Amino acid sequence: MASTYLTRTAGSTGNVQIWTFSAWIKRSRISNADATQILFGTYTDANNRLEIGFHNANNFIVKEKQSSSTNIDMTTSELLKDPSAWYNLVVAVDTTQATASNRVKMYINGSQITTWQSGYDNYPNQNYNTLANVSGRTYVIGQEGNNQYYFDGSMSHVHFVDGTAYPASTFGSTDSVTGEWSINTSPSITMGTNGFTILKDGNTITDQSSNSNNFTVAGGTLTNTEDSPSNNFATLNPLNYQLSGCTLAQGNTSLTATGGNGWRTFYGTLAASSGKFYWEQKVNSYSGSSHYIGISDIDKMKNSNDNDFESASTDAYCYRADGGKVSKNTLTAGAGASFGAGNIIGIAMDLVNNKLYFSKDGVWQNSGDPTSGASGTGSFFNITAGKLYTPATATYNTSNQFFSYNFGNGSFGTTAVTTNSGNGYAGAEGSSIFNYQPPTGYSALSTKGLNL
Known about the structure:
The protein is mainly beta.
């Protein structure tokens, strides 16, 4: 949602003292140098605004100003910097409470925040009237409301409740097996006049409560994705690459080179040491042969301008744009057909038999058969067992390159998969959408796929 935002104007005034906001979010752009990113709020000008989001040091914030007076100013000491995780963020406001600390409650993954950045634990006065639920004010999701401070990431199950301050336990619970905070997909909530539920199933901005408080896409493109709090998919990892000369977008599933020659290696956010997994990379625009698609051992990931596949000390394996294959700085020519702009490369990683296969536009190269098991018919490599592997791509960065990745989320950038009558093809876990049919027994690299 880096340039996408949603709006809705309240038709009537509800409860301006008591309300709840809850959303599940997955961050994309994460850096101490980043600007503030706003998830939700309402804005007239800099001196009259309510905002919930992230401060530029990645702290979770709630802030409200009216007539130049800062009446709520809460900033957590915790930093939310994991681009591979879905976070559940809840803000419950009830200014009628006698105890100041009960007037604004903030939760991250079910845990109520009790520690704050120094000087940023400023609760509102008792019975303070907030800017929420005021007739004629416009709610904005995805930016401040002044065409700045855009949220960069994905959002799901966005709830706003008018008239009740709900705890985080309404929207999730702790999994008894994993200990992780898990989504409650159908919370029991009383919405109130201005309450709404959107982005519950895909990119639906039609209110899925009974209120019909629908939103409008006011800017950008709202892309549907299978990546959700119930099934977290791999993406490219913004913490393991050099920002200089490259831009990640679309929830870290597309990569654009913006200039400057030099090697870059990019990695996934999820990894596996066992099982069978499939994903796809589209070469949207490209020239030359200096592009490598494959996998790498996460213990040897580099946060530097380098090519992992040309390192003799790294367990990394790839298919190169000129048709060669490369591992440990050894090139074998003619392993498959060359590829370039418009081609889709499929990767089948068999960590049961330790084999790696590649397809070009649905055709398995080297007459490969990813279902051949231990015989490894047509596999590009016998990969080292016992390692933890993640998707990896190395490219010699110039300004004419654009690549997009489908880890099963159902799109290449903003372009949805259209094969199989628009339904695509699911992996073995049953919850993914690929352009080509994955080999039998291969799952998406997602939490459901990893736990198949």
